[in-house]
Amino acid sequence: MRIVLGTVLAALSLFASIVSSQKLPLVVSTWGNADFQAAGQRAFDYIQKYPKNRVAALVEGLSECESRQCDTTVGYGGSPDESGETTLDALVLDGPGQKMGAVGDLRKIKDAARVAWAVMNYTKHSFLAGDQATKFALQMGFQESSLITNVSTTMHTEWLNNNCQPNFWRNVAPNPLKTCGPYKPNQNAAKFSLNSKEPLNAFSQVSHDTIGMVVIDTNGDVAAGTSTNGARNKIPGRIGDSPIPGAGAYCDNAIGGAAATGDGDIMMRFLPSFLAVEKMRSGTTPRKAAEIAILRMKAVYPEYFGAVIAANKLGEHGAACNGMATFSYVVGDGNAEKVQVYTVKCF
Ligand SMILES: *[C@@H]1O[C@H](CO)[C@@H](O)[C@H](O)[C@H]1NC(C)=O
Ligand SMILES: *[C@@H]1O[C@H](CO)[C@@H](O)[C@H](O)[C@H]1NC(C)=O
């Protein structure tokens, strides 16, 4: 009996390694339009050329989106905050050794993903934020430049001309639904309950498309990360889910990786990427794991906007989404030279 079982297990693991040798290396990344495809392709080309450099491939992919200003929601020149400045969040995770580097509210440096990588490489910290992250980047040899462009200036001017609508304030005076700040706390407005019945944030596909990516190399080692310029008209200082490990992205070298995109102010409260990886650990398929993570958030915020992608070490992948009709993501695997776009129906 034992011998038979052993033979079956050996056959299964042989089968698994045949499957994985066909599907690895694997790149899975959020959103399917042209610039996001190019970012996925960049990472996929890189990991095919340098099969063990999964973190470099990840950062190449994220950086491609930053320099293309994917949907003006990644990189410089998009999503101006209330003061008109663009600030960046990025995360880089490496499975072996559970390594991490992240930046939040990064100012005046275009290369957010590379600065996150520098935090991993050159410090014992995991996460730097704000102007001090800029100082760190300058020491590490990055170039300072304005992240404001004509496009982001126009976005900001239109917002000012529209009485600063939409914005992210509540329970303040003057009425934030009608008037620009500065604001003060308004206890009388606190009849606004702090629950999901409240008007949802001004998020949509237009205002928030993070690139989140999982890269698995031919050894089955996993890296994951994100890059974004956050939410349009955000309150200065706001950091979203993207650079938060377990929220914007997560990986576990024994299991696989996941990444999230959408209304980060909501999503970070649930650690959806961590949850998806944990579900895969207990044997759930990536698709089902992503669905469970999405449903966990939908139970509290039925209308929220977001998506989760997940991939395991066998090279299987999947996604789930809420608050839009469909969600597309990009996959590069051993079956083709070009990345392909997969589309899932949302809940
Ligand atoms: C991090 O270190 C690797 C070598 O391990 C190097 O190739 C890469 O360029 C470094 N990244 C940064 C941002 O300096
Ligand atoms: C941006 O605006 C400036 C000043 O209004 C103008 O000179 C410049 O040509 C514009 N650049 C682009 C790329 O439109």
From TrEMBL:
Active site: T210 (nucleophile)
InterPro entries: Ntn_hydrolases_N, Peptidase_T2
Keyword Hydrolase: yes
Annotated signal peptide: 1-21
GO cellular component annotations of the record: lysosome
UniProt site positions, description: Cleavage: D209, T210
Keyword entries, A-Z: Autocatalytic cleavage, Hydrolase, Protease, Signal
Gene Ontology MF terms in the entry: N4-(beta-N-acetylglucosaminyl)-L-asparaginase activity; peptidase activity
Source species, domain of life: Eukaryota
Pfam families listed in its UniProt record: Asparaginase_2
Keyword Hydrolase: yes
Gene3D superfamilies assigned to the protein according to its UniProt record, in alphabetical order: (Glycosyl)asparaginase
EC number(s) per entry: 3.5.1.26
Binding residue positions for substrate: R238, I239, G240, D241, T261, G262, D263, G264
Known catalytic reactions: N(4)-(beta-N-acetyl-D-glucosaminyl)-L-asparagine + H2O = N-acetyl-beta-D-glucosaminylamine + L-aspartate + H(+)
GO biological process, one term: proteolysis
Cited function: Cleaves the GlcNAc-Asn bond which joins oligosaccharides to the peptide of asparagine-linked glycoproteins.
PANTHER family, sorted: L-ASPARAGINASE, N(4)-(BETA-N-ACETYLGLUCOSAMINYL)-L-ASPARAGINASE
Similarity section: Belongs to the Ntn-hydrolase family.
Name by which UniProt lists this protein: N(4)-(beta-N-acetylglucosaminyl)-L-asparaginase
Organism (species): Panagrellus redivivus
